[in-house]
Amino acid sequence: MSRSASSIAGGRSRRAGIAEELPEAGFSISVGCGIAREEGPREEGSDTLNSTTSVNAQANANPADLVTEVEALGERLSLVRQRIGEIIFGQAEVVEQALITLLSGGHALLIGVPGLAKTRLVETLGTILGLDDKRIQCTPDLMPADILGSEVLEESETGRRSFRFIPGPVFCQLLMADEINRASPRTQSALLQAMQESRVSIAGQYHPLPRPFHVLATQNPLEQEGTYPLPEAQLDRFLLQIDVDYPDREAERRMLIATTGLAEQLPRQAMSADELLAAQRLVRRIPVGDSVVDAILTLVAAGRPDPAAEGARRFVAWGPGPRASQALMLACRARALIDGRYAPSVDDVVALAPPVLRHRMAVSFAGRAEGVSVVQVIEQMAAPLR
């Protein structure tokens, strides 16, 4: 991807040369709290919620401690957003959705035309959140071994030969797959296991990935020649589809002033990987009211094919599955934390409906012939909740 022409402050920057102490952590890493999980991270929303009562009972085990941790994390996230704002201009909603993805422990697909700071945003997030980030430039000739790694035959000084595994770029904490739709289906599928299970299989051996592990992939909606559309199974692995639009005039003015001078603004670290893991556990401890759960269930069910539906909904070819409900549940909690609230509301469900659902639905051929889009369907679905 080209450098951002509208939303960056400065050229590409790495962590080298950034020497600033982190603020003292205001929230603890509470191992074992929240919803029980298997060893190793799992894909967003992979834990089954038995009931709202059981979730809230775990969240309210010690309400005073929960309130203290939420307030401390809110202050830290405010610092994170402030430092991102020093680098990225005019993309407040995109930044918020990217942070929601990371706090929820998920992956995101960023779609936008070239020059809107998609690559720059991922690099900035990696530095500010203290994550080991790597980048893959996807091309049609990119092979799975180029991403996952491979085994090489080595000979020791004694003449003994053995295979040694050389990890690929997927062994990081924040992986950027630039223009993922340019990679072949074989290479795209290599990311499926990593995104779902946070581990890869090479020569019959499992290799766990670092924690946390997130994939932020970009896609150019303009060029379709020489590309391979992502299959529905892989699209569903992304927690959010983040549409990156042009910045407003004032943001672009600030960008011009900040990026055409002699000084280069470098991102400054505000969190660590361990603190991000603690924040992800805290997200799962946030209580959720019955009204929010009912709104999520109603919204997702409204996006499934129904021949008796009216309006744009009757053109739905296939709709969101249970993973969409789980993604909404986690994303709403993360959004509440970012806003400094102790519990999500129905407004969070409405606000996050487009990024959660638009890549999990499709309009039938008859609907496309009449000019119906997925965005129109989602608007009709969310209208009763407003």
Task: Estimate nothing, just give the exact number of structural domains.
Answer: 2
- The unreliable regions are 1-21, 28-51
Q: The biggest beta sheet, please?
A: 5 strands, parallel
Q: Rg, please?
A: 21 Å
The total of beta strands comes to 11
CATH topology of the largest domain: Rossmann fold
Strand order of the largest sheet: 2-5-8-1-9
CATH superfamily of the largest domain: P-loop containing nucleotide triphosphate hydrolases
CATH class of the largest domain: Alpha Beta
Structure report:
This protein has two domains: 1-10 and 32-52 and 61-261, P-loop containing nucleotide triphosphate hydrolases (Rossmann fold); 288-386, Helicase, Ruva Protein, domain 3. Helix 3 (92-103) packs across helix 11 and helix 10 packs parallel to helix 12 (346-357). The chain is an alpha/beta fold and 386 residues long. The chain is built from 14 helices and eleven strands. It is 40% helix and 13% strand. The strands form four sheets. It has a five-stranded parallel β-sheet. Strands 3-4 form a two-stranded antiparallel ribbon. It has helices spanning 52-59, 63-85, 92-103, 118-128, 144-148, 185-197, 232-235, 249-259, 273-283, 290-302, 322-338, 346-357, 365-369, 374-382, and strands at residues 108-111, 133-137, 149-155, 161-167, 174-178, 199-202, 205-208, 214-219, 240-243, 316-318, 362-363. The protein is globular and about 75 Å long. 42% of the residues are buried.
